[in-house]
């Protein structure tokens, strides 16, 4: 079950389409869908989580807490809408594309993809692009 929660004034348009898309991402990677909670927030909210739980005193666009058991993907994915908007401007892409990149990024981490080394980061970008393309395909 995929749920969207809001700690800011932002809301996703067409939640049902996003939910169906995320389910297809999980299926395309050969995993089963468990309980996945997206929490949309602002920089301040996510910064506090970053400091309190990860001991990182930096701003970030996403933090995911992975509770996956075996093949069942589960977790909480916190997304700073402020950071995503800023990144979209920096990367000169539409906000809608950047939010899809971040939403898929969290799921890809649960699937085992990393982004710490240059090689891993490149593979993560390729997988994100692949999953963003899936958003526009009706099933």
Automatic annotation (TrEMBL):
Superkingdom as given in the UniProt entry: Bacteria
Cofactor-binding details, from the entry: Binds 1 zinc ion.
Compartments, as annotated in UniProt: Cytoplasm
SUPFAM superfamilies attached to this UniProt entry: Metalloproteases ('zincins'), catalytic domain
Keywords from the UniProt entry: Cytoplasm, Endonuclease, Hydrolase, Metal-binding, Nuclease, Ribosome biogenesis, rRNA processing, Zinc
Main location: cytoplasm
Broadest EC class assigned to this enzyme: hydrolase
Cofactor: Zn(2+)
InterPro entries: MetalPrtase_cat_dom_sf_prd (IPR023091), YbeY (IPR002036)
Enzyme Commission designation: 3.1.-.-
Pfam families: YbeY
PANTHER family per record: ENDORIBONUCLEASE YBEY, CHLOROPLASTIC (PTHR46986)
Assigned protein family: Belongs to the endoribonuclease YbeY family.
HAMAP family given in the database record: Endoribonucl_YbeY
Function: Single strand-specific metallo-endoribonuclease involved in late-stage 70S ribosome quality control and in maturation of the 3' terminus of the 16S rRNA.
Protein name: Endoribonuclease YbeY
Species the sequence originates in: Flavobacterium ardleyense
